[in-house]
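Form 12-C: Joint structure prediction
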Amino acid sequence: MANLEKRVPSPEGELVILRDMQFSIEAGETVAIVGASGSGKTTLLGILAGLDTPTGGQVMIDGVDIFGLDEDGRADLRRRSIGFVFQSFQLLSNLTALENVMLPLELVGRRDASAVARAMLERVGLGVRLHHYPRQLSGGEQQRVAIARAFVADPALLFADEPTGNLDQRTGDRVIELLFDMNRERGTTLVLVTHDEALAARCGRRLVLDGGRLAGTV
Amino acid sequence: MSRMPLSLRMLLRDWRAGELRVLAAALVLAVAGITAVGFFTDRVRLALERQAGELLGGDVSITSGQPLSAGIEGLMPATMRQAHTVEFPSMALSAAGRSALVAVRAVSPEYPLRGTIRVGEQAFAPDRAIAGGPQPGTVWVESRLLGALGIAPGDDIGLGEASFRVAGLLAGEPLAGGGMLFGAAPHVMLALEDLERTGLVQPASRVRHRYLFAGDAAEVAAFRKVAEPLLATGERLETAEDAQPQLRSALDRARSFLSLAALSSVLLAGVAVAMSARRFISRHLDGSAVMRCLGARQSTVLRLYALQLTWLGLAAIAVGGVLGWFAQYGLERIMGAMLQMSLPAPSWWPLMLGAVTALVTLLGFALPPLLHLRHVPAVRVLRGDAGAMSPAGLLAYLAGGGAIVVLLLWYSSSVRLGVQVAAGAAAALAVLAAIAFGLLSLLRVIQPWLAPAWRPGVRSLVRRRGSTVVQLMAFGLGLSVLLSLLVVRDDLLAAWDGALPADAPNRFLVNVQPGQVEALQAFFAEQGLDVPELFPMVRGRLVDIAGNPVDIESFDEERARNLLRREFNLSWAEVMQSDNRIVAGRWWQLGERGSAEVSVEEGIAEAFGISIGDELVFDVGGERLAVRVTSLRSVAWDSFRVNFFVIAPPGVFDAHPATWISSLHVPRDDHRVLDRLVRAFPNVTVLDVAAIMDHVRSIMDRVTAAVEYVFLFTLVAGLLVMYAAIQATLDERIREAALLRTLGAGRGQLLRALMAEFAVLGLLAGLAAATMAGLSGWAISTWILDLTYTPGMALWLVGALVGMLGIGVAGIAGTRHVLDVPPLGILRAS
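Section 2 - Result
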């Protein structure tokens, strides 16, 4: 990414959330974006994944400038090669665990959606929870469903936003274990945002954000 | 890539989650109401079409007040068949001296040319089809005449100067309907050759001749072509295709009005659809953001939800269509007896009507919230507030209002009716909104003085002002129509009855011959009764107004056209009747005999554009009589006294064949005087005003019952709006209740607050509806009926009670869930 910048208007004048952001991530790398609250971590993640748009600069994925694409182009890109795990799980409340995991496959019209999703849920240890709704699952279980959903379409790139933020220490550890295991199995490039130092330490590289700037790489 | 399977699966998933039930119920209701009306009127239409030839009794019918000019009959090809009937009201007399008004139809042996007459031997016994009319010397009568005269089949009855044996009971015949009088009085059929013997048809008698013709299609078409240009004014040609125009136009009107009544349920269903679609979409904002995140394009997400709603709409059409099919049996039960025909199965067309209604409603009311999905960015998964929905303003209902107007114009047979109803509905909704806002403001003012138990509920209503007003309007609309039909209608009828003096004339004597006037007056004097005033009349057709020949087609008003087709009753008098009033010009001087002038009633003067000084030409028995209008009169028609549109001084019309007419008051159950009168003057016809009014009232009762039936759909739609409104606030209520319970509020306390809230909402809705119904009753009585009407307290009492009970129960049922949710889970989830 080059010269990334994000400004938003606010009642106190223009607010600069990200500035002069420049780094690159290799395929298969695991990268943690760390920093204090309000340092711009989540905004950066949103822009990297093409969910949000920058006010300046470029993000290239596989040599493609994703902001040279239109919104539909970025949606296509996400469908083909990007997975997500969120702090608040973002499971669809009226869908069962199985249906939540099937959704990415259904969107590309896969006929084997049910079988593939079932296998994936078994992989994350939720084979007995297939037909439970999110509200019937614990937080850890919900995040495991989310991980199954993120990996089910075999993305090349996975973005995780504070994946343990809503979980207690032990549950969080187990979820992270699962995330890294799956990541290794599939050779996915992982970019995660966290303020958990232990979690960041497990990644191959850490990008430290401070006041919207890249303060360092460890 | 096809999105259909996925959208179907999404529909099933959302259905399972219970998110779409209100929306589906609203659509089903809209379709059911419209298709019920559609199926029923379609069956009547098909019955009319299939029986058109049979209803007419032939392929072509020419009706006239006079025997047909011979020229036309001569044009008929020899291969065509012809029949002749003469119809008129008269009195039938039993051997024991009882009398009854009857509708007489004298028929030639060939009648009917199409269809059959069904005749039975005994009342309620099976009947059989007979080709041809009764034998000379005998009559067939409708069984209800047996009771009226106290006779049995085989007995003799008198008609005019002749006597006939009742040889059979009429169970069905072509030409069954035909005019208010023919609907009200039992029919009597006799052979045409017997007619002269009765002496009932005199030169000035009002009778209807009907000439029927039948042949193959080409003959009929050719005959019509040559006969039509030769018709004199007052001669009317109908073919099977345009048979029973009154019945057909009545059907059109009934269809329009019932559809418009059903449309009010569509309107409310639309509001429920809008509310629940909004809730549905707002609960799916996160889901659609997640789908975007998973790589679904914006257009894909939009299409998926649109398809989902379309499937739902199609399912609703199917279910609503089935419900409508069953509901139309209700209409058949209410209206069937009036129709006197068996109804065939309907066509599929009404289902199309329902389908279009559902899709237009869905488009108008659900599309605006659906389109909001365009503004939901994928980044909502990270920033939960992105793309949130703004609170629904009135603007959100603009598209829905447009959809309703489109449907309204489509349903109403004329643009004018559509525009009138749209304007009326808009005015009614505006008044309801004003009342609702007013009541709510009042509530806010008195809130501090309420008992503490009531305060939380009332506060909740005041706080959700927009939603409260919409609910008040939804209920108010349904309830006010029902109150109008149930309470106001009775009040109006009572006011109308009360406005008539107790001794208002209740019988008319018509067809009194010139030679009988003095004898009739002597008859009343002998019986020790008041001698009624008798008025002469001759029949004449208005052919020329102020130098312009009358062209019936140039008049827009149906009433004017009907009046011109018939002959006027022209009368003469030296002094004006006491209840008439001159509004322009002057009445003639005493002794001003024979000057060719007339006084015209102001209503028809306006309808025909007649002013003082105009010359009118009447065709009286083939002679043209020119008269000048020298005054316009107002007439108190509701006095039930004899009155005339056109009156001349003595000496203008006297030379022409006349009959006399009178009105009198006879105690309702006193038959003896009238029986004696009919025996002494068999040709005189006694019309019972009360019986005719009863007939009109029974028709009105059935029509209002049908409208009430259709408005039940509206009331249910109103409940759905409330349910949707409750659903819209349910999440908020659950959170509030959980919070209050953690603060120590008991279950009973919360229940009381809910009860207070819905009881007050119901009370307000009931009061608003009663006010609305009272206002419309007042408007109708003051501007249309010219009556003084003060709505009784009962109206408000009934309104308040029905509102509180209905809404109270429904409201508690809808929110009960709030009380049963454990507070901790709720607070943790939020």
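Section 3 - Comments
The mean pLDDT of chain B is 83. The radius of gyration of chain B is 33 Å.
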